[in-house]
Amino acid sequence: xxxxxxxxxxxxxxxxxxxxxxxxxxxxxxxxxxxxxxxxxxxxxxxxxxxxxxxxxxxxxxxxxxxxxxxxxxxxxxxxxxxxxxxxxxxxxxxxxxxxxxxxxxxxxxxxxxxxxxxxxxxxxxxxxxxxxxxxxxxxxxxxxxxxxxxxxxxxxxxxxxxxxxxxxxxxxxxxxxxxxxxxxxxxxxxxxxxxxxxxxxxxxxxxxxxxxxxxx
Length: 217
Prior knowledge:
alpha+beta, L-amino peptidase D-ALA esterase/amidase, single chain, two-stranded antiparallel ribbon, 10 strands
């Protein structure tokens, strides 16, 4: 694990917390964008929950658990207790990935129609022990998303009509940095930052997809 970063996995949520603020870039439904945060919450919701006020739902859980503020929050109908954690390290940079997988509403980006399907998602949280420039964080988000598309293709996940799925209609991604150590300018798949993030995500996502497929045969 990365020093100062903890991961708690349960049926209510996945929580990644840090002893010092993390620099976070995300598509999170609560406190998304480029922000500082002490915790990332991936909160489980029922498939039929209308999720009318995601921020209030996440805040209620975070305060009940006594999580340090501020926090970034995600929602998912996937089984959070089945989250998979993986790590990777190379060239003075390390990464931790926590992934939850729900594949009931797969889509193919640029192919599938606009959809407002329920929140059965692939939510990906990555923490890198580094101090990347903002552009490198954006680059790392792209890299992590590329890993997801590759893993789904390898697993044979398709949408109606046979096109390969690139994700689900409600996926979210979080890349957080500790602010320590190396200061990378790039986060692409061939850079140390992108490589460790990609390896950690792949190591978590591949078995996560396989496990979901096994349970839903």
